[in-house]
Amino acid sequence: MATLGDSLTLKSGTVLRNRICKASMNEALATPDGKVTDAHVSLYEAWADSGASLLITGNMMVDGKHMNEPLVVDALLDTNMDLLRKWAATGKRTNTHIWPQLNHPGKQSPKMVNDAPLAPSVMPIPNDMFAPPRELTDAEIEGIIDSFAEAAARLEEAGFTGVQLHGAHGYLIGQFLSPHHNRREDKWGGSFENRFRFVEEIYNRTRARTGPGFNVGIKINSSDFQKGGFTEEDSIEVAKRLDKLGIDLIEISGGSWENPVNRKGKQEAKKESTLKREAYFLEYAEKVKSQISTPLVVTGGFRSSEGMSEALGTGAMDMAGVARPFAVDPKFGKHVMQNNKHVSPVAPIRSGLKKIDAMAIMEISWYTMQIERISQGKKVQTKADGIWPALRVIYRFWKNGKAVKRVRA
Predict the structure, then answer these.
(1) How far is CA 141 from CA 119, 146, 172, 198, 199, in A?
(2) Intra-chain end-to-end CA distance of the chain, in Å
(3) With b meaning 16 or more CB within 10 Å and e meaning fewer, what string describes 23-61?
(4) Which of the chain's termini has less CB crowding within 10 Å, N or C?
(5) What CATH number did the domain enclosing 145 receive?
(6) Contact yes or no for 45/14 (Cβ under 8 A)
(7) 394 in a structural domain
(8) Which carries the bigger pLDDT value, residue 365 or residue 106?
(9) pTM of the prediction?
(10) Local confidence band at 363 (pLDDT 50, 70, 90 cut-offs)
């Protein structure tokens, strides 16, 4: 079975030098109007020395009017090209591949950055953070598909070696795939074939606009854990169809704003033999792995050398996807490779107030602050106990949202 230090050859011919992938985290380093900054370049210069062979960037939007959160990059801004080239070049020195994650949030675009979100169907998110969406027209759907392909072509021109399509966590690709969110009765909805058409077209047009050695991967949910929604069976079928189309890498994850992953709840139904596993979605990966030839990345839960190695040893996955450990330890990949007992210091963020601690945005924003510190060459913080760090995080998120609103006014 594979070990963390083994190389991995993708369908494109790209060789990844080990089995560690830094999964996507929003850097929140762009300007309010979506411009790349020097901070992105310095951050990825640091992560190029992380020990991971593949770095998936934070979300880059294929439509700057529709952001998933404040301070994300607009992949189609002409003024971004110079800094995108510098960003892409940061991995060359260490033979580290960098793939931007391309996304359209659909209706999962918060009010603080978007008062008029779009979706396959008019199915509001039951959360006051989001305005009710408008249903996309056929022409708008075609335009979004072209935007994904155009973004990928520009990123290839900038020097990146691949892109990852974000089809997980409740964003637009996932919304089209889900029968709960997609109630359309035209060629984009209804049957699985029609619901799959959106991502299939994005993949095909992206391939048509990019070179044969350019990698196209995708991140998909194992399930959206929602009644009448995107099931595990649907997910396996998506993986099988994308495998036949020739996709280079599939990353498995789960959850959304409506249904975040609750590891404890999921573990109650697990077999005793799997309770000690760090990987949240390894059981799903075991089901799909035998049915496809595309390499699999499993992301969610990894914190230690042993956990990652044991998961690879099952043969159910080809790479370990890790996110937050890289935010508190920019050399996490090297540490797990050098020490088979290494454990990340990542721990739950606690303010002492249950309502604040239950907010997903609290955890996400705190780790984003550590990413900013890495970009500035500062020492990161591994703990945030007490109310003041929590309030500082919430204020920062609110302030960034206001800044985006002012730019659009």
Answers:
(1) 10, 9, 10, 8, 11
(2) 56
(3) bbbbbbbbebebbbbebbbbbbbbbbbbbbbbbbbbbbb
(4) C
(5) 3.20.20.70
(6) no
(7) no
(8) 106
(9) 0.92
(10) confident
